[in-house]
Amino acid sequence: MRGIEIQKGEPVDRALKRLKNMLDSEGILEEMRRRRSFETVTQRKQRKERTAAKRHAVRWRFQRNKPAAEETSSAS
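That's the Small ribosomal subunit protein bS21 sequence above. Prediction below.
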């Protein structure tokens, strides 16, 4: 377990900030966030399908308007 030495007269919030910076620089916080909850294969697939659906909806909305603009420029 990583730790820091609290200096005499140092505020606790500043010591916590130093600890957080140290953990962040070593990549420990990122790994903790990733391992916080286990994701089964089924849950991962469902999450990816949800994000893909949102991404494709936005893409479809913008691509739908694009061909109409190309048709008017080629017709001129």
